[in-house]
Specification:
single chain; about 110 residues; mainly alpha
């Protein structure tokens, strides 16, 4: 359980880094997604590190999703949707991060 909580906190921290330094944050998320994909494809056990990665991806994806909802709610009433803000890439990143993290977690739970 400690690894899960630590993973969630790391995911939230990575999402916050993405806000402050978008390129670095997106690279960190992409590295996590690639590592998660490797874990899923190779069918390796991964142990606690797999659950840590799953929690980090879910945490980052959840915070990205909150950002999408917040931006949409804030900008919906404006004429130009806050300067034509595009929330689709952030939404895609959120959904993919949550999906990959969930798949890793499900596989980890089944194997334990």
């Amino acid at each position: 359980m400690e690894r899960w909580i630590a993973g969630l906190l790391v995911g939230v921290a990575v999402a916050l880094v993405t806000v402050l330094m978008p390129v670095v944050g997106v690279i960190l998320i992409l590295v996590g997604l690639v590592a998660g994909g490797v874990l899923l494809v190779r069918q390796t056990r991964g142990g606690g590190s797999a659950m840590y990665l799953a929690a980090a991806l879910i945490g980052a994806g959840a915070l990205f999703f909150v950002g999408v909802v917040n931006t949409t709610a804030s900008c919906y009433e404006t004429v130009d949707f806050c300067g034509h803000a595009n929330v689709v890439p952030l939404l895609v990143l959120a959904v993919v991060a949550i999906a990959v993290g969930s798949l890793i977690a499900i596989r980890g739970i089944r194997r334990s």
